[in-house]
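Quick entry between incubations.
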Amino acid sequence: MSDPSARLEQAIAQLGVDLQPSPGWEARVLAAIQPRHESWFVRGRSAISIAALALIVVLLLTWPRRPTEPLVLSAELVPGAQVMRGPSALRVIARGGDGRRSIRIYRYGYELVAACPGHAACEVTREELRIVLDFVQIGTYQIIVLSSPVALPAATGSTDGDLATAVDAGASWKLHELEVR
Amino acid sequence: MEVSDTEKPRGVDPDQDIVGLIRCGEYAAALTTLMRRHGVAVYRYCREELHDRTLADDVHQQIFIQAYRDLDRFAARSTLLTWLFAIARHRVLDAVKARRRAQAHIEEDDTADTPDPGPPPDERLDAARLQHALIRCLRELGEHVRSVLVLRYQQGLTFEELGVVLREKPGTLQARVVRTLPMLRACIEACTGGEV
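Done. Structure below.
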């Protein structure tokens, strides 16, 4: 390139060309924008008439379908089956949500450690999904539970990519990040 | 020195699909597409303006959180990318101000402000030296000048789009670039002892 100005412009264009955001950033943004379920009283929207309340109660009592329970994700480090120093197992439980649920456990945002259902250690009951992983390696784990009335997209291995695909497909989600030292 | 504006088709937002999602109230889907499409570009801008990986990571995420919260107010008066960079610009300026305040009280953390690593050693020497000198000389420029160059050449924004992001007249910005490029070149040549 002979033109100094063009070369300079090109050099500016190349600044940070190899830089990438840290893995899991999209998931962290999505987790931060999850709606908070605050009570109506807290939000100051409690101006509901007695008639409207009565109507809601009647509807709830007579509704033919069981209402969808909120999606709940519980993830914790627990002593594993083997005697080891410190926690050696990761227990994740998911409850509630719409018809189909899936737990995905990622390490460092790009390594899919387990998906439940699908993993040998996954237990599926009507009420919950439960998975206990022994011999958890050191690292930063992103644990996601997805829920959707329709089939969930398959996990590919990227926290950001999988979560984005699921959100696009209309799934609800919960995310928990856990550091194993 | 000639500074031309990049030709872009007017009237059509390249992110029309995301704008469509916003209009349908599909804000989460709009955000995920926005992050996938422009996440890296915004991150590069943050890193270049802040020179601090941890701070850039944080600001980068804040930008998209704010974008999500403001999506329902996007009125399509500019392109979505321009609107996004306007948010980025404000968040970066806030971070710079906050850091300046903090540094007034505590000594600068050496690890936090470590310059980004230069190009890999197998690249030709001239390119490596040019990049190192460029980074150094850009930092010596005023923030309002550096932003114009980074947004113009790193991000490829037109002067019209820059005018929206920086709230200045496109002609003023173009003149600033014309004045700055020779200064930048002189600085680089002084640093390297060679010609650009």
